[in-house]
Design a protein that fits this description.
The protein is α/β, with parallel strands linked by helices and 144 residues long. It contains six helices and four strands; from the N terminus they run H-E-H-E-H-E-H-H-E-H. The longest helix is centred in the middle third of the chain and has 28 residues.
Length: 144
């Protein structure tokens, strides 16, 4: 979640008396059948895979620590969690379900054109598959 979106989520929660569950999905680099040429998944050197996984864990911890600090400073009750999943939008939806959330608040990076087509949009996938309301905050890149 973009830093500005975290700020807006905290403001929204404070004004509505809500509690926030911050969630960061860590992408799995193993068994990604959606990027395999022949359906067997994509495999990488285990040492390199562990380096990626460690970097992802550290990034998630940094992001979640900053988010919870901001919420706590504003007096907004919050929790945080992270998980590793090969399909990011599924991880987001599962976290919302598992934490009994009433709303998903997320940032959009505003990828359009070829980047949007090739990379896709996790925000769009969440919007398409969510049974909960989704509030999308455009990141600074999307606003530019």
């Amino acid at each position: 979640m973009a830093e500005m979106a975290i700020e807006r989520a905290v403001e929204f929660a404070k004004s509505s008396g809500a509690e926030i569950t911050f969630f960061h999905a860590q992408e799995s680099f193993y068994a990604r059948t959606d990027v395999a040429l022949f359906g067997e998944g994509f495999a990488i050197n285990p040492d390199l895979g562990e380096s990626f996984a460690q970097a992802n864990r550290e990034r998630a911890e940094t992001i979640l620590k900053a988010a919870t600090s901001q919420a706590e400073a504003a007096g907004v009750p919050c929790t945080s969690s992270t998980s590793v999943h090969p399909v990011i939008h599924e991880a987001i939806l599962a976290a919302a379900r598992d934490n009994n959330c009433d709303l998903i608040f997320m940032a959009s990076h505003g990828r359009r054109g070829l980047a949007g087509l090739l990379i896709g949009s996790e925000t769009q996938r969440v919007l398409t598959h969510s049974k909960l309301p989704v509030l999308v905050f455009p990141s600074q890149e999307a606003q530019a």
